[in-house]
Amino acid sequence: MNSTSYCFNNLAAALLLAACLSGCNGDGRALLQVGEKAPPFTLELLDGGEANLEQYAGKGLVITFMASWCPCSKDSMPLMKKAYQTHKDNITFLVVGIQDDESKFEKYIRKWEVPFSAGFDDGARISRDYGVGSPPTTYVINKSGIVKRAFYGNIKDKEDDFPEWLKEIL
Amino acid sequence: MEISTALWGGFSSFFSIWQVCLLQISPFYMAFIAGLFLATAGQKDDPRIGRWVLLPFLAYTAGFTVFYSLLVASGLGISRLLLYNVSDLRLISGIVILLAGLYILMVDRISFLSRNHTPLLLSALSLSIGISFALIYSPCITPTLSEIMGIASQPQTAVEGWRLALMYGVGICAAFGVTGITLVLLLRRSGVVMQNDRLIKNIFGIIVLIPALLAITGLMRHFKAFVLGFLV
């Protein structure tokens, strides 16, 4: 067996193993996609309260997954705050800390004086259900709980589009 | 998006501000490749040393790019399953990296390992390390990657997005390769390093154990928060 086919066989075996492991460990439920209903969640907020999807029914929701160490998360925050000031009566904004140290995330929220709810995804349960691999990831969810938009990356790069996405869920 | 744009996006991310995020894996990859080189240079008198570096590098690239691109292409069924189980897979990856670090430390101490120290074995090890690094890595979403993820997250365009993500991953690996091979050439020319090859190999082996322990204990997120957070 030459080295190329040896490597190819190894790769195929590894892919198969990963597929098996995935199939065995998960419940097989599909992850979140645009057009699907947002999965329910319960999030402990940094201010001591609790947030869950049901309480936002009948109102638009912007949920964004961020980390204190991520440069794009930092860049995204000013636009999020601006959008909150414009739409705070009709849309709920929520920041979820992921892949981070909880105390560092708390400091990050305080430093940016985030005016909307924030919580830390302890155990990565919410990010798993929402299929979030990296921060920042933002979901725009309408009044019926349907995901209308999903955006991966620095929301500042969508400075013109983001306000339009918010209008879609008013 | 053009394939070349994705390739360049991945390559250039290594040499830009986005390197901050790559620090989750880049120093450990350099330690791995340098450790393997010193383990080989110390015991194998093979003039075709390139074979010992090039084959493992290609295997690493294959493992990293395939799994990295699958994790990006969330519109694909297998990608969704991988993402859903990524916590468990990171634990397994930690164990694989641990074994690779121990291999670098032990290869000149255990005769069984020394006898089987061949380019093929190193390629298999590199393939596993490539897969493991792709699984423990959570990338910063560069503008190019953001666009790719947008395409790859939709079931109807997921395959196209996966191809772009594959090329983006190849671009990252090409940058890793250029840097890794440069490092190996520098080590090879350094008299001090070659005279103390066992000691330095062991240091590199210990460095490789760091991401393993971070992934196994779940402390990787603290590493990101404190080390990467310090830099941004």
What would your notes on this structure say?
The complex is a heterodimer of chains A (170) and B (232). With 170 residues, chain A is an alpha/beta fold. Chain A folds into 2 domains: 1-27; 31-168, 3-Layer(aba) Sandwich (Glutaredoxin), CATH 3.40.30.10. Chain A is built from 5 helices and 7 strands; from the N terminus they run αβββαβαβαββα. In chain A, the strands form 2 sheets. A 5-stranded mixed sheet of chain A has the order 5-4-3-6-7. A two-stranded antiparallel sheet of chain A has the order 1-2. Chain A is globular, with a radius of gyration of 18 Å. Chain B is mainly α and 232 residues long. Chain B has one domain (3-231). In chain B, 54% of the residues are buried. At the A-B interface, α1, α2 and β7 of A face α4, α5, α6, α8 and α9 of B.
Structure keywords:
heterodimer; A: Glutaredoxin; 2 domains; five-stranded mixed sheet; two-stranded antiparallel sheet; 21% strand; disordered N terminus; B: 13 helices
Written as H for each helix and E for each strand, in order along the chain, the element string of chain A is HEEEHEHEHEEH
How many helices of chain A does DSSP assign? 5
Shape of chain B: globular
- Quick one: biggest sheet of chain A? 5 strands, mixed
